[in-house]
Give the backbone structure.
Amino acid sequence: MNLWDRLVMHKEDEELCELVKDVAACLSENEMHLTTAESCTGGWIAKVLTDVPGSSIYFDRGFVTYSNQSKHDMLGVSEETLLLHGAVSEAIVKEMAEGALTKSDASLSLAVSGIAGPTGGSEDKPIGTVCFSWMIRDDIAVAETVQYDGDRDDIRRQAVIHSLEGIIKQLEG
């Protein structure tokens, strides 16, 4: 049994394992180092990327900034932006992505913030709303918002997958 097969603990993780393999190859081929700034995913993205021995070749560090205060303290997210747009917004994830690059040696950042439920949603931002941003150093941040269905774990897992797919898209695009 090879390393990748051993990393697949459950059948439902096979998709995630293959995606991590693709992200690792893409980052390595492009000689890029990634930093993550995670809120609703709680470090899940950093975890799956570092499940692979030798991941320091492409992964620099991860920030788990769950509270608004941690987003401000650790990543330099503006308190004004938090007040104007709320933690789940494209404006915030762009600032998170920029802050993660500023606080690291990485060449690419990924930021994610969302409402995974089962509480916390509103009419404007229902449960399942997740905002993403990817930023290559010395470039502008790209952001998007996606609406997911499912329970808390489903929403978070979908966000992890979308985040990783976005890395590939940024590097191949």
User: Anything to note?
Assistant: The longest strand covers residues 129-136.
